[in-house]
Amino acid sequence: MGTAIVITSGKGGTGKTALTCGLGTSLAKLGNRVLCLDLDVGLRNLDLALGMTDCALMDFTDVLFDRCSLERAAAPHPTVENLFLLTAPVTWGSIPVSQASLKRLTREIRSQFDYCLIDCPAGIGPGFHLAVCAADRAIVVVTTDTASLRDAQQVVSQLHHYHIPMQLVVNRVSRWMLRKLQFSVDDAMDAAGLPLLGIIPEDRRISLAAARGELPALHTQGVIRAWHNIADRICGKRVTIGLR
Ligand SMILES: Nc1ncnc2c1ncn2[C@@H]1O[C@H](COP(=O)(O)OP(=O)(O)O)[C@@H](O)[C@H]1O
Ligand SMILES: [Mg+2]
Q: Can you give the pTM of this predicted structure?
């Protein structure tokens, strides 16, 4: 049975979608079957980040409401073996999606995939609770700005109700910013009250790749290494945490 991991943050723009995409790619390259599930209905963009805008014809509600099988709806990545996308609908539609039905969907996904990475919407509304209710563990993504840390505290207090393991990823870290802010990754851990799963450096080429609808390539080495390290840690390998 696979593991469902929700990638959440509270604040928009911290890098949830980028991490879902990067971690999914890294876990797939380690030989795991990975399904990236976009639950950011209305603001979905995981297909863009994965370079799969033309690939996903069916969305998760098609599977939920038996319009299509999971096998047909899960779109394989054009270049990364073992990586699949189940996208979100553009709107919620008229039939409400219950937590029970989402749990049923992720149970089916977990029976067919090693990992289901759930890209969570920003905020702590019903969409957040749908994304979290079906997860076995949570990754909270923050940046070093105060607003993101404050929102993460709200998210963590909500996540406590679900009794799942939670870990922190600090994204977009630059030594220059840390120095200027007189802020450290320890401060982020203290603010969120969570153990650290990884640190990802700031690299503007990530946004450039996303804007081009491409997976970040070799020129974004630091970020890719950070994603790989997080994937290794999720798979149980001991890898030292740090910025290079
Ligand atoms: N490590 C990084 N370095 C630089 N830019 C990043 C990094 N991670 C994400 N971004 C960029 O930040 C923006 C917001 O990221 P996104 O993943 O869409 O956030 P969210 O899903 O949390 O709203 C995007 O333009 C993305 O390319
Ligand atoms: Mg997003």
A: 0.95
